[in-house]
Design brief:
Radius of gyration: 51 Å
CATH class of the largest domain: Alpha Beta
Helix content: 40-55%
Number of helices: 10
Number of strands: 14
Order of helices and strands: HEEEEHHEEEHHHEHEEHEEHHEE
Structural class: alpha+beta
Number of domains: 3
Length: 463
């Protein structure tokens, strides 16, 4: 059973239940009113007759209107206390109206008693027993009856009408429910069709549902948003693979070209061959760095990158990083400084060291000769801030949005280090993210840069 049919049956069932409850309530209200109206035709007239009936021995006077009153089938009978018929409009049917002994206590107290009886000929009647009192004493009983046929016929017709109406309404509810279900599920059908049509080669299609801002509109908007994210991810992956292939092809081309040249030259000297091998080694090392960086980013994207968290003293880690960077800094006569007190941090020591090395290398490589690079460590507002600041070339403000994009290299970066890959800052940002942190940049072209990694308080171990 498909969802549209289930939704239709649910709608029709709820409508039928509602119709049935309304019909039952209407029938009950009409029946109560009909029986009340019937009783009002009996009791007021009967009480009026009873007040004008005189009983003397075995005789009773017949007041005006006895046996009449607008209804020819009305039956009036006067009984003595002994149950003898003293006066009757119909002798054959009168005996059937004799009050039972069980009614005596109520009649003795002057109460009017209503009963439903069946006459000899099978006619169902409504009977009102009205006590005849004189000086507070019961002298007889007036039984006045009206056939129930008319009222029962009206109620039967009403019941049939309500049943037919409920059947018609049930059919209409089913039809309306089917149409509503089709209308409501139309966007879902479009989503299903769109999902069947979408492939990795065609991610341009969108639902773009129009109409009221309801739950289905929100679902369609969420679906479109998911497709937007998927398209961006696929586009980024394609670009990543294309740029990776390009970056790897360049050193391979250089290696292959130089080796081919050396092989074609039978007169190549030992120094020339050694120079070719050194070039191949350098390009291989560059390619190895690219492959390692790509592997790191790929494993991080697929959540396959395992992290070994431990308590790391950041001041000691900064000192190790400065020691490793010292030879590179000495080549450009750059002074390395460390500021700040030690702060314990819970994270992956190897990844943190790689992040700080990348930051330090960038600060040194993209720097004019002579200057300084300062590593700062501060804990403030329940967070840790690691700052790597320099007085180097700086970064143009228009490059800020693309700094952490994979393979992006600014104009100054290409000029200073032609062999760079453009993956360093992307790796820094990814390591910070895996530790729950962010990277902030403050720089101005020609006046240096400051990269700040901010980690949340949750990464600070409790003592």
């Amino acid at each position: 059973m498909n969802f549209r049919l289930r939704l239709t049956l649910l709608f029709a069932g709820l409508c039928f239940l509602l119709f049935a409850l309304i019909s039952a309530g209407a029938y009950w209200a009409f029946a109560s009113a009909a029986w009340k109206e019937l009783d009002q035709k009996l009791v007021p007239r009967g009480e009026s007759l009873a007040g004008r009936i005189e009983i003397s021995g075995d005789r009773a006077s017949a007041p005006g209107g006895f046996g009449k009153g607008g209804l020819e089938e009305r039956i009036d009978v006067v009984f003595s206390l002994a149950g003898k018929i003293l006066l009757a409009t119909s002798g054959i049917q009168a005996a059937a109206l004799q009050p039972s002994s069980a009614l005596s206590p109520q009649l003795m107290e002057g109460q009017v008693v209503l009963q439903d009886l069946q006459l000899v000929d099978g006619t169902a009647v409504r009977v009102a027993y009205i006590p005849l009192l004189r000086d507070g004493k019961l002298t007889g009983v007036l039984a006045t009856a009206i056939p129930r046929e008319s009222t029962e016929r009206s109620l039967s017709n009403l019941a049939i009408t309500l049943l037919v109406a409920n059947a018609i309404l049930l059919v209409l509810a089913a039809v309306i429910g089917w149409l509503l279900a089709r209308s409501v599920l139309q966007p879902v059908k479009r989503m299903r069709q769109l999902a069947e049509e979408i492939s990795l080669q065609d991610l341009e299609k969108r639902i773009s549902l129009e109409g009221p801002r309801d739950e289905l509109y929100a679902l369609a908007a969420t679906f479109d948003s998911m497709l937007d994210r998927l398209q961006k991810a696929v586009t980024a992956d394609k670009q990543f693979f294309a740029e990776s292939s390009h970056e790897l092809r360049t050193p391979l081309t250089i290696i292959q070209g130089n080796l081919d040249l050396a092989l074609r030259n039978p007169l190549a000297t030992t120094d020339e061959l050694r120079q070719t091998l050194r070039l191949a080694r350098d390009e291989t090392e560059a390619m190895s760095r690219i492959v390692a960086d790509l592997l790191f980013l790929a494993r991080s994207d697929t959540q396959a990158l395992e992290m070994v968290r431990e308590t790391v003293p950041l001041r000691a880690l900064l000192e190790e990083v400065v020691q490793l960077l010292t030879p590179l800094a000495q080549e450009k006569t750059i002074r390395l400084e460390i500021a700040g007190e030690d702060v314990p941090f819970r994270g992956d020591r190897g990844l943190l060291q790689r992040m700080l090395l990348n930051l330090g290398e960038n600060a040194i490589r993209y720097h004019q000769k002579e200057g300084w690079v300062r590593f700062g460590l501060v804990r403030e507002n329940q967070s840790i801030r690691i700052c790597v600041e320099d007085n180097g070339w700086g970064i143009p403000s228009e490059e800020y949005p693309l700094l952490f994009t994979r393979f992006f290299r600014g104009i100054e970066a290409k000029r200073q280090e032609p062999q760079g890959t453009g993956l360093g800052l992307a790796i820094i940002a990814e390591i910070a993210r895996r530790h729950g942190g962010t990277v902030e940049v403050r720089s101005q072209s020609g006046e240096g840069s400051c990269f700040t990694v901010v980690f949340p308080v949750a990464s600070i171990p409790t003592r």
